[in-house]
Amino acid sequence: MSPLTSWSALASASVGVWGLGVEGTASLHLLRTMGNLPVLVDDQPTVSSLEGVDILPTERGGLEALLACDVVVKSPGISRYRPEVAQLERAGIPVRGGLGLWLEDVPLDRVTCITGTKGKSTTTAIAAHVLNRLGYDAKVGGNIGHPPWEPSTEPDPDFWVIETSSFQVPDLTNGPPVVAVTSLSPDHLDWHGSLERYYADKLSLCTKPGVTTSIADGTNTALRIRLDSSGTHVQWVDEGDGTFEGPWIEALGLPGLHNARNASIARAVLLAMGVEEAGDDAQMAAAAEGFVGLPSRCRSIGHIGAVEFVDDSLSTNVLPAQAALEAYGDRAVALLVGGHDRGLDYSPLGHAVARRQMPTLVITIPDNGPRIGSAIREIVGDDVTVVDAANLEEAVATACGWAREGGVVLLSPAAPSFGRYADYRARARAFSEAASKCGVLTGSPI
Predict the structure, then answer these.
(1) Is the peptide bond between 109 and the residue preceding it cis, with omega within 30 degrees of 0?
(2) Alpha helices in 96-220 (DSSP H)
(3) pTM over 0.85
(4) Confidence band (pLDDT; 50, 70, 90) for 446?
(5) What share of the chain is helix, strand, coil (3-state, %, to 5)?
(6) Half-sphere exposure in the Cβ direction for 157 (13 Å, CA)
């Protein structure tokens, strides 16, 4: 094993923890149980200390402190391509991620990592839910659940299902035997620096040492092109083989073909990991019962009269917005789009709107809503109405005035919530509050 690539190797090292969100805090907790008091550094610390340890701002003494460490454990939000990371590595200081350190320390045959531009959280949640319902002890980690290296008094689970972001993959030095990629489309260009590097970083999960099987969505053209030529062993999950349907998928209660695809990938992962029960349709249907979809992922928040309001606030790029439109392809939709601009090409969303046969209204919200609207107008012309709203509340009011019986008011912004809201949850709450001003939301189905 290379030096300083695992948590167990850091017991006597001088460690810097850079970035103090959920992962950074878990790293502090683990190091303290090892008797190691790390240096804490954050770009914009909101407090001066954490659990009695001083926090240094990166630009005011923090980088200098990290340069004096043996190893730096950075949070995923800190881009591997920042000049400070290059400076640390030129100085001979390894820059690691918490997940990568953990994977070097644990038995990997009961771990799987699931990545993808979109769908990875839902696929992770489905896999863990089914495992637990089948009688195993399964835990989720990554962007949902807790960092698996967070100290716990509970016994190790039978399985870890790790939702793995493109921010984490470049920091991994190995991988479990079975991994999955749910989708691939442009995203996070600000972190990765370019589209091709984003794709390369995301797909490098499939070529990490230790990976023997990669489960991937066979309907995604970008994945097909890149993984077919990668030399890796890929097991494609494709609509043509009938895996996207069946009673067990219906029992999950999730709308849309994209969720059937997520479920099929989850099942393929379990089968590849040797979970024999996953091959039995009856057992899978029983295990699917009781699944609760994740918040802000095509989640119905209720109805006003016969109009349904759907929160898809975690839609932060084109792909999930397209999937949401397809999920409600047989209904009239008022689509609310817009948020933080990351320079994405929104013409594919315009084509998705143009393909719809049912009435559609597109309402844009700041900050990049008008740019999304312009891209859609270029595709749809006068066939679909696109209007700009000053804010989310105005957009919801406009949608309520247009919506018709059996229709959907769909918040699927295709952009992050940065700037206007603290996070996607705050944006979702604002959507619910705005809907409540249009009438009484009820949970009864149409």
Answers:
(1) no
(2) 98-103, 120-133, 189-192, 195-203
(3) yes
(4) very low
(5) 40, 20, 45
(6) 20
